[in-house]
Design goal:
five-stranded antiparallel beta sheet, 3 domains, Helix Hairpins, Beta-Lactamase, 486 residues, single chain, alpha+beta, Heat Shock Protein 90
């Protein structure tokens, strides 16, 4: 174990060195870019000042000669005076060399500010290709260049090209090339980078040494912690197994209860519908109706529990086919309408004229609608209304459904409790509204397993709006067994 720790420490040391070098290079590059930018701004001001104070007064003489025969410039006293003024302007500047070029690329004048040898004078610019490529440009540009000296030393020069632009002209008269020596600042940056990298490596070595010394004393503690982690992992696995067994037990119990309940409801239907003669006593008929209603209610609750258990266990089946969603919405509203009339609640619809066709599980879709509509009727006072709407979203190929009521609503802080399995806002034994609290969680689970999204917005004593979105075509979803039906 600690061999791995030491190997990790060694690898970490290598990584730290690499990171320190990379970060040092990055900071040096940033510093170099900032240095070039400052020199460029410095040279821009100098170049523009030269154009205004020297070039413009002599432009009428120099520009025509530079554009024609270059030999006319030699021996001309006015050209010589222009050269003197140029030297006088630049001689006290903090520059290495200044070159003046015509728009044609012809070198008009070269001024050495710093002391140089005869060999250096033969190469006025470190990068002539850069100069020739920008002599006709209207934009200032610069780059970091290197110049080799006769003694094999190198100079780092910022090569800045400032166009000679006269107001009113569409093209430059030429270019002022200024070379600024940045060798010393760059050498300082390299030294700083090396010192910084060495400091980081030294600090890491000190830290690594402390870690190595303390690792031996920590071996027993870490070993005991590892054993404790193994025990916790085993306990967590056991808890997960127990949880799955509970879910399976709940599913089995629900299934076992469903069979006798079907028989109870079937026989009570026979008695209620008068298939066989009964004793003519009104109380018997009331009892029979109560038996039937209780059985139907209990079966509905168990079906909800069974469906939720299957969904949680990843064993829910979807029978997929092409569904007329508009028709199913209208059918669901007709089924809920008797309860709505009893509760004196209005049912309204806002559907598109064209039928909404989706490919999904029609039974699950209808169960979603009935759950939401029944829930809305149950929690909406008399003279309230429930509106169901639907619309297509062509952008993401989905259909959105909305059930909005003017019921008692839910406080925002209680929505999460209402959406939890078996949770209800009022959990007291004497609560006004019956149910397991599975309606909304089961509906949300169905929507998500059908590849959709479920949202709820509610305000106390104002109402609730539930929106769910389904894809136009149901695709493969993890934890769902999909069967295609005709």
């Amino acid at each position: 174990m600690f061999g791995n720790l030491r190997l990790f420490s060694l690898l970490s040391f290598v990584v730290i060195i690499v990171i320190a070098v990379v970060v040092g290079v990055a900071f040096r590059n940033l510093a170099t870019d900032e240095l070039v930018r400052l020199v460029e701004q410095h040279d821009k001001n100098i170049g523009e000042g030269y154009v205004d104070t020297v070039w413009k007064p002599y432009r009428g003489i120099i520009h025509p000669l530079a554009s024609g025969d270059p030999s006319l410039m030699s021996g001309n006293p006015q050209v010589a005076q222009f050269a003197q003024e140029t030297v006088r302007y630049f001689q006290h500047m903090s520059l290495y060399r200044v070159n003046i070029y015509a728009a044609s690329g012809l070198l008009l004048l070269s001024v050495d500010i710093a002391p140089v040898s005869k060999t250096q004078k033969k190469m006025p610019s470190p990068d002539m290709a850069f100069v020739k490529g920008n002599t006709s440009s209207m934009l200032m540009t610069s780059k970091l260049s290197e110049m080799k000296l006769p003694d094999d030393r190198s100079l780092a020069l910022v090569q800045t090209l400032v166009p000679i632009v006269v107001p009113g002209e569409n093209s430059p008269d030429g270019m002022v090339e200024m070379l600024y020596d940045v060798t010393a600042p760059l050498e300082k940056q390299v030294d700083f980078q090396l010192y910084g990298t060495a400091s980081v490596v030294a600090l890491f070595l000190a830290f690594w040494g402390m870690l190595f010394l303390s690792s031996r004393r920590s071996e027993n503690i870490i070993a005991r912690q590892h054993e404790a982690n193994l025990e916790l992992a085993a306990a967590a696995a056991a808890a997960q197994t127990e949880n799955r067994e509970k879910s399976q037990f709940l599913a089995n119990v629900s299934h076992e209860l469903r069979t006798p309940l079907n028989a109870i409801i079937g026989f009570s239907d026979i008695i209620k519908n008068g298939v066989m003669p009964l004793v003519e006593n009104k109380k018997y008929k009331d009892y029979i109706a109560d038996i039937n209603g209780s059985g139907v209610h209990l079966l509905s609750l168990i079906n909800d529990i069974l469906d939720y258990s299957k969904a949680e266990a990843g064993k829910l089946e979807m029978e997929v086919s092409e569904v007329n969603a508009s028709k199913l919405i209208q059918n669901s509203m007709r089924l809920v309408e008797p309860r709505a009339e009893t509760a004196k609640v209005r049912l309204l619809e806002a559907l598109p004229k064209e039928p909404i066709i989706i490919t999904t599980d029609s039974k699950k879709f209808k169960q979603i609608l009935l759950n939401l509509l029944s829930n809305a009727v149950k929690f909406t006072p008399a003279d309230g209304e429930i509106r169901i709407s639907a619309w297509r979203d062509l952008a993401d190929d989905t259909v959105t459904f909305e059930v909005k009521d003017s019921g008692i609503g839910i406080a925002p802080k209680d929505i999460s409790r209402a959406m939890s399995p078996f949770g209800q806002v009022d959990s007291a034994l004497s609560r006004k509204y019956e149910g397991t609290g599975l309606g909304l969680p089961l509906t949300k689970k169905f929507v998500e397993l059908m590849g959709g999204k479920f949202t709820i917005e509610s305000q106390l004593n104002v109402g609730t709006t539930i929106t769910f979105t389904l894809p136009r075509e149901l695709k493969e979803v993890e934890g769902v067994i999909i069967k295609q039906v005709a």
